[in-house]
Amino acid sequence: MSGARLQHFGWFLARGFGPHGWGHPYLDWDWDWTRPDLYQQSARELEQAGFDFVLIEDAPSLGSPQTIDLRVRHAFGGPKHDPLLLAPYLFQATRALGVIPTVNPAAYLPYTAARQFATLQHLSGDRLGLNVVTDTASARHFGDAPQLGHDAAYDRAEEWLAGIRALWRSWDEGALVRDAASGVYVDGSRLHATAHRGDYFAFDGPLNAVPFTAGEPVIASPGGSGRGLGFAGANSDIQLALAPLHEKSVREYRAKIHAAAIERGRRPEDIKILFAIQPVIVASPEEADRVVAASLAPSDATLRLIAQRQSSDLETDLTALDLDAPLDAGIFGDHVSHGSIRRLTGDRDVATTPLRVHLTALARLGRLSDRSGFVGTAEEFADLIEELGEWGNDGVLLWGDLHPVTIHRTLDELVPVLRRRGILRRELLGDGLHANLRAF
Ligand SMILES: Cc1cc2nc3c(=O)[nH]c(=O)nc-3n(C[C@H](O)[C@H](O)[C@H](O)COP(=O)(O)O)c2cc1C
């Protein structure tokens, strides 16, 4: 066996708590996505596989009123149910797996949030995490405050989280007495009536939930901008990283977060950085070559499917456009993020490049063996993860739905290979999510 570093593994349920199986042949397994059984079965298998946690994407909105049909017609952008409320069912089904629902500071007032999260942390045996995102487009659902800009949304998220933490800490050591002889349950003189009056929130404490015994809920964050990385360095226990997986970019990404952590008085080792990867694990190198070759010449039907998905993500209808004509540069509204448009158009000249070329680039898969993509065997994928570990990496976030078919397809061969190489732990500790993250 090699001297490989142990890595942390998370599973990212990338399209949230929604219609699983829609558009896939495995729809005929007849799971009901609105019921917990599907997710519970998969969560048990992730736990058995030694994953630290499952993280559930969320967006509370169906997007712009004018383009809702694009979002829901093929179920790419909704419907979505609230992952915070799915979490207890996953805790119930497992013993040690962490569960990290996505939460948006716009959607929960700090006192409500502090109380609900504290309740779940206790109920779960310290296994709750919170993926804090700063989606601003959903503001109109939560009152009449104007939509915030990118950086202001991060400012609000920091105030929100600091407020929640102040509430969690509003009980001093020794406040919880629980002395049956004297009949005293709580020493009220040790509770702080914190009064917060900030730029975005105003509330009083103390919180009416008992303090934690094994640490606060884990904070995760996915923002990749300078401000997003700063937020992670300052606040997060886990950062979900998206960056090219070559040595320079991995090391640079990590260095930026570590610098932000140090600037805010934290230690680099306080934050685990997990790179998001969606591998396509196949049985043999020959099969991988076939899958990649097929992706290079996609049919028009495949391109139309990609156009549907892009239309949902970009809230812009691409489905009826001529595949062989360039995109009209004015087609995207001001609300569409430049990053999302760039993911479609890459570095190509929009004025002269036919839509077909952009969509074909999105269809293209590459081989793990030459690092041109993520199609390969379990051994090839393990090579990549082992190499990431050599560059100081903490872990990876595998990306997909939470359907048992997907879990099996991805993990059946991979788990034994990773374990044999000493990259994947054999067993989770039972002392909560923090304990598992800090174990190595
Ligand atoms: C792995 C990963 C998971 C994400 N999950 C969510 C999510 O659940 N909800 C959401 O609104 N945004 C999600 N995002 C997007 C980020 O929150 C954020 O909007 C995006 O990275 C832009 O922020 P930035 O400008 O700081 O990079 C995710 C991003 C990544 C890379």
Automatic annotation (TrEMBL):
SUPFAM superfamilies: Bacterial luciferase-like (SSF51679). Pfam families: Bac_luciferase (PF00296). Residues 39-392 form the Luciferase-like domain. Signal peptide: none annotated. Keywords: Flavoprotein, FMN, Monooxygenase, Oxidoreductase. The keyword Cell division does not apply. InterPro entries: Diverse_substr_monoxygenases, Luciferase-like_dom, Luciferase-like_sf, NTA_MOA. The keyword Flavoprotein applies. FMN binds at D58, T102, H150, Y154, S225. One of its GO terms (molecular function) is monooxygenase activity. Belongs to the NtaA/SnaA/DszA monooxygenase family. This is Oxidoreductase. The lineage of its organism: Bacteria, Bacillati, Actinomycetota, Actinomycetes, Micrococcales.
